[in-house]
Every structure is written in structure tokens, then in C-alpha cells.
């Protein structure tokens, strides 16, 4: 379900040619939570870990499946929530 290269997904720039190992694992984990009915998923990751790439990738994968509708995806700095 996850392509070999991020840039094979819709809306991912061509310069994203390789996944980092943990990125593929985390995307699979997020997709697993969604398929198990979770509607709120919090991803806590450091600066530069690829949170934007996760969000765009998950949205693109779900869109290609045509079985989910994503209304909003929010990216916030965790410390800004308090």
C-alpha cells in the first residue's frame, strides 16, 4: 500500500526520493489505527522528522483507496497546545 518512494504519491515533490525507515513504519502504524476506526491520531515527533510528509502521504494513500474522506489534518507544535 505504501509506494517505494514518497514522490510516487500525489502531491509529494520529486525531491522526496527515499523514505526514512521509521517514516514507512509510522505511516503503516497510522493507517492501521485508521483502519481500526480511530478518528483522532496524535503524532508527536521532533522537528525535521517529517510530520508534513506523514500527513500528505497518509492523505494521498487514503484518497487513492477511495474509501475514506479526510476533512481536516492539523499540524501543530505540541507545546503550543498548552
Automatic annotation (TrEMBL):
The keyword Chloroplast does not apply. Residues 19-68 form the Helicase/UvrB N-terminal domain. It holds the Pfam family ResIII. It comes from the Archaea. Gene3D superfamilies: P-loop containing nucleotide triphosphate hydrolases (3.40.50.300). GO terms for molecular function: ATP binding; DNA binding; helicase activity; hydrolase activity. Coiled coil: none annotated. Keywords: ATP-binding, Helicase, Hydrolase, Nucleotide-binding. InterPro entries: Helicase/UvrB_N, P-loop_NTPase. This is Superfamily II DNA or RNA helicase. It comes from Methanococcus maripaludis.
